[in-house]
Amino acid sequence: MNKVIVLAPHTDDGELGCGGTIAKLCSENKDIFYIAFSTCRRSLPAGWEPDTLEIEVRNATRVLGIKPENLIILDYDVRVFPENRQKILEDLVYYNKQIQPDTIFMPSVRDIHQDHNTIAMEGIRAFKTHTILGYEMPWNNLSFNTSAFVILNEDHIETKSNALMEYKSQLHRPYINRDFIYSMAKIRGVQIGEKYAESFEMIRAIY
Predict the structure, then answer these.
(1) What whole-number distance in Å separates Cα of residue 107 and Cα of residue 17?
(2) How far is Cα 73 from Cα 70, in angstroms, rounded to an integer?
(3) Rounded (5°) CA angle 115-182-60
(4) In the 8-state DSSP scheme, what is residue 128?
(5) What is the C-alpha separation between 32 and 94, in angstroms, rounded?
(6) Which domains, ranges and CATH numbers included, belong to the chain?
(7) Whole-model pTM over 0.90
(8) How many angstroms separate the CA atoms of 122 and 110, rounded?
(9) C-beta separation of 181 from 156 below 8 A
(10) Cys staple from 200: which of 119, 148, 155, 207, with CB 3.0 to 4.6 Å?
(11) Are 78 and 42 in contact (CB under 8 A)?
């Protein structure tokens, strides 16, 4: 993994799904790009400014170590991605050509959220000649195939947790929680005999 694109349907999805892995790759000076497809203005709690999540994703990805110029923020409306499948596919094809990545992280193909599933399906089409790993979001996955793991250390998990704490507008959500983040990393670590890990669905492997 030398040049990676993380596909985040909504701001914070990339951090939740693979924030520890992003932190690890950034610490190894890999070239990481993060594409957020929506800043979810309609989903913000009352009283927050419309650009809140744009500011928060900039702060969070900076904590992870992603270069500011490698953060791409698009403006799709939340919960209607299926209506924009073709435009999303065209965007993905464009960034594939521009960035020329070797590895893609994106939602699992088993993710039942309509926006996440659209990114997964169009992501497979756009990046079918690349290694693709689907990240885990337990609240959206009725099942999840733990077919790939990335070994992490405590610094990676702490960085992931610190990045997610930048989403102050989302702290009411039960998964934006340090205990939950550490617990998931410990569970996946136990599966492979390590202290911490993140698990992925191996959609396509090309070496």
Answers:
(1) 8
(2) 10
(3) 55
(4) T
(5) 17
(6) 3-204 (3.40.50.10320)
(7) yes
(8) 14
(9) no
(10) 148
(11) yes
